[in-house]
Amino acid sequence: MRTQKRCMGYVAIVVDDYDRAIEYYTEKLGFTVVEDTPQAGKRWVVVTPNPESDCNLLLARASNDSQQVFIGNQCGGRVFLFLHTDDFWRDYAAMKAAGVHFCEEPRQEEYGTVVVFEDLYGNRWDLYQNK
């Protein structure tokens, strides 16, 4: 019997402008642009924290008023995305130096080190490293 690998491929995040979002995710969070392909009336823009990752972030520009209301509030104010790291303090320091807005001071939890930050739009993320 053949087994099939299944994984999340993309998580879409609603943005107001492709270039502004690319600049933030690459310059502030250290992501890499994987793809930026023009399509009819839009672009297929994919960024990733690690080019070897199976799950990447799809930057989806809001195309109407009903989509625009979700920019920065895709999860009702809860933490929406979780950025794993193998070196918390390295990434925290780099992100802080780049001007990323942290909502709290880093803390130790039973599962590891974590801090909440907000992206360009106000979506909340966890930066964390497992113990």
From TrEMBL:
<dbReference type="InterPro" id="IPR004360">
    <property type="entry name" value="Glyas_Fos-R_dOase_dom"/>
</dbReference>
<dbReference type="Pfam" id="PF00903">
    <property type="entry name" value="Glyoxalase"/>
</dbReference>
<dbReference type="InterPro" id="IPR037523">
    <property type="entry name" value="VOC_core"/>
</dbReference>
<dbReference type="InterPro" id="IPR029068">
    <property type="entry name" value="Glyas_Bleomycin-R_OHBP_Dase"/>
</dbReference>
<protein>
    <submittedName>
        <fullName>Glyoxalase</fullName>
    </submittedName>
</protein>
<feature type="domain" description="VOC">
    <location>
        <begin position="7"/>
        <end position="130"/>
    </location>
</feature>
